[in-house]
């Protein structure tokens, strides 16, 4: 990247000389642990640090318990970049890159259920979901007949599904797979997915409309795919097969 473009990106993304990186702690694939100081570790924190290195500034991780809290914090300029699922509902405040990784979203259902992904959106069907997640925002826009019941946390959504004997629990496939062990034999996951969460890099939309920051992040994301950095981080943190590196922009989706 030309030095002038790098300087413009640094001016927008790290005006105080430090890159504040908003990290969503609720995505257990992207944040897999904590270091000795209690700061998040995983694919997302490591990727954020790599972005800061490319900008030639130090990184400061700013953790949030849920993505909706992270998005709300854009109003108070609490972070400079974020690593969350891109969604049209969030794009009014945040400039997003194309996806750098993808995570399937599907349904958990009772073991005896005959429901499929295609038949889930039917009258009388009740679906539990974690409020404000990227898959939940998609369901809010796309469900026409089924009723969406929302909880404040992922575990709360599971408890609602289980205790109220609902028809389905929506979520990310890897998290739902882990939840099957809570009540062994009672539930199963449906084949396929109703959507894939597009994990992207984002920055707060600047008042002057500048694209220097998001252009830098977009180029970084594509370079990280090409170089193998993303796959290296996925392998390093033990989430191989659970996270998928997104296709290069312009590449056919297989």
Give the secondary structure arrangement, pairings included.
Layout: H1 3-13, E1 19-24, E2 33-34, E3 40-41, H2 43-55, E4 59-64, H3 67-72, E5 81-85, E6 94-96, E7 101-110, E8 126-130, H4 134-142, E9 147-151, H5 154-163, E10 168-172, H6 173-179, E11 187-189, E12 195-204, H7 212-227, H8 229-236, E13 244-245
Parallel strand pairs: 1-4, 1-5, 8-9, 8-10
Antiparallel strand pairs: 2-3, 5-12, 6-12, 7-10, 7-11, 7-12, 7-13
Helix pairs in contact: 1-7
Write structural notes for this entry.
With 254 residues, this protein is α/β, with parallel strands linked by helices. It is 31% helix and 25% strand. It has 8 helices and 13 strands. Strands 1, 4, 5, 6, 7, 8, 9, 10, 11, 12 and 13 form an 11-stranded mixed sheet that branches. It has a two-stranded antiparallel sheet with strand order 2-3. Helix 1 crosses helix 7. The protein starts with a helix and ends in a 9-residue tail after the last strand. The mean pLDDT is 94.
Name the helix and strand elements from N-terminus to C-terminus, one letter apiece. HEEEHEHEEEEHEHEHEEHHE
User: What's the story with the biggest beta sheet?
Assistant: 11 strands, mixed
Distance between the termini: 30 Å
Mean pLDDT: 94
Kindly state the number of beta strands.
13
Features:
single chain, 254 residues, alpha/beta, 11-stranded mixed beta sheet, two-stranded antiparallel ribbon, 13 strands, elongated
Summarize the structure.
This protein is an alpha/beta fold and 254 residues long. It has 8 helices and 13 strands.
């Amino acid at each position: 990247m030309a030095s002038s473009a790098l300087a413009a990106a640094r001016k927008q993304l790290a005006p105080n000389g430090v890159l504040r990186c908003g990290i969503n702690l609720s995505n257990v694939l992207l944040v897999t642990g904590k270091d000795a100081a209690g700061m998040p570790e995983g694919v997302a924190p490591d990727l954020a640090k790599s972005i800061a290195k490319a900008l030639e500034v130090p990184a400061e991780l700013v953790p949030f318990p849920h993505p909706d809290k992270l998005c709300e914090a854009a109003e108070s300029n609490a972070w400079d970049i974020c690593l969350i699922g891109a969604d049209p509902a969030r794009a009014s405040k945040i400039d997003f890159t194309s996806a750098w990784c993808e995570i399937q979203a599907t349904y958990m259902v009772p073991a005896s259920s005959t429901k499929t992904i295609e038949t889930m959106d039917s009258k009388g069907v009740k679906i539990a979901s974690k409020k404000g997640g990227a898959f939940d925002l998609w369901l809010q826009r796309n469900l026409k007949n089924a009723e969406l019941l929302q909880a404040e946390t992922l575990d709360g959504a599971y408890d609602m599904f289980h205790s109220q004997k609902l028809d389905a629990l929506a979520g990310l496939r890897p998290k739902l797979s882990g939840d099957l062990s809570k009540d062994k034999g009672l539930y199963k996951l449906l084949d396929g997915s109703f959507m894939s969460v597009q994990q992207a890099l984002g920055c707060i939309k600047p008042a002057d409309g500048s694209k220097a920051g998001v252009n830098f992040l977009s180029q970084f994301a594509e370079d990280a795919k090409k170089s193998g950095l993303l796959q290296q981080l996925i392998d390093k943190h033990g989430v191989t097969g659970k996270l998928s590196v997104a296709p290069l922009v312009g590449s056919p989706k297989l």
